[in-house]
Amino acid sequence: MPRKLSGHDKDGDFIMTTGLTEIVFDELGPSKIIHIYSPKTGLKAIVVIDNTALGPAIGGVRVSPSVSAIEVARLARTMTMKNSIAGLPHGGGKAGIIADHRDPKKELYFREFAKQTKDLHEYTPGPDMGSDEEAMGWIYDEIKRAVGLPERMGGLPLDKLGATGFGLSECAEVSCPYAGIGLKGARVAIQGFGSVGRAAARFLSEKGAIIVAASDTKGTIHNPEGLDLKCLFETKDSTGSVTNCRKGIAKKMEEIFSLDCDILIPAATPDVIHKGNVNDIKAKLVLEGANIPATKEAENILYKKGIIVVPDFIANAGGVIMAAMEYAKKIEKEAFEAIAARIKTNTRLILEQSKTEGATPRKVAEEIAKERVLKALK
Question: To which H or E segment does residue 15 belong?
Fold first, then answer.
């Protein structure tokens, strides 16, 4: 893949162009960008180590046919911010395997990926979109370095336990009053009904919220009176899509953003909220369950409209907090306690400061996280 440095941007930061992508180099990083290719297996992968000032990097391995260097770099920076503001002794890194997550060669790819990154000791892989605890087990088999492992291997399986979804429910509890709504009875729409979306639905429902809409790659299912979660889970498992749930009205995938709700949780892929659909959003509160699910422009528009957006590296930090607890050999109970305490504290901190300073929650959170990393660098 052709690469070149194309000078500086208006802020004086380096920009590296890789094909049609641009990666910004600033005072935090990224420190390493590694492209991996194995002629033997056909593996194509990217690893970005953004910053390790606070400790060895932890970050998931994303599996997608469209994952790119720029996406991995953006995600790695998110991990730097996430680990920093959560007070974890870890830096930010991320990896992407360019393949379909249903590819029959998936295990072969993961084992080859592990071998190719064996000596990259500053990076510990974890699960992400398209990967799970079984995939982390394959990596651990090869190099004895991964988090989010299966229980049989002594791990804390993030997806099975619903770490990220649990964290989102704790975040909602703190942020709802700032949006002028109560969590009990709040109507929730979840874009992306994978492991994060499902867990968020379960934990939010336990707190009294009503799930009125859910979507996946096949479309959206909507019931303004509330969806039956048991039906939703069973339908997703048996048919592969929430749209087949009989107790709701099937709609187009993108319609979830315009539905009437109190809380919107984008929990799938990057940049799904953008200038083209941001003005359709009726929610009073957006909790970013996915990493980088909204463009910065869209977040600024929502802020000006009075809609509170809790940024990804605050709202969805449950997964990496649990991964860090596993890394530190903590037990499940300690991990859940850490998720609740850290996410609630940070949500309250950034929303209070946002209200006081008149700045977006993301700007406030980034400044706090960045300050901690820069202090460590010095």
Answer: strand 14-18
Which residues pair with residue 57 across a beta bridge?
91, 123
What confidence category does residue 17 fall into, taking pLDDT thresholds of 50, 70 and 90? Answer: very low
Strands 44-51 and 32-37: antiparallel
* The dihedral sign for the CA sequence 53, 57, 62, 67: positive
- Looking at the fold, whether 148 and 167 belong to one and the same domain comes out as no
CA–CA distance, 98 with 66 (Å, rounded to integer): 7
Residue 274 domain boundaries: 163-317+349-373
Contacts of 151 (CB under 8 A, 6+ apart): 157, 160
Structure confidence by residue, pLDDT tens digits, 172-188: 999 999 999 999 999 99
What confidence tier does 263 reach under pLDDT thresholds 50, 70, 90?
very high
Question: Cβ–Cβ contacts within 10 Å for residue 185, how many?
Answer: 11
Segment 347-368, tens digit of pLDDT: 999 999 999 999 999 999 999 9
CATH assignment at residue 282: 3.40.50.720
String of b and e for 249-280 (b: at least 16 CB within 10 Å)?
ebbebebbbbbebbbbbbbbbbebbeeeebee
Residue 363 main-chain phi, psi, to 5 deg? -60, -45
Active site positions, annotated: 94
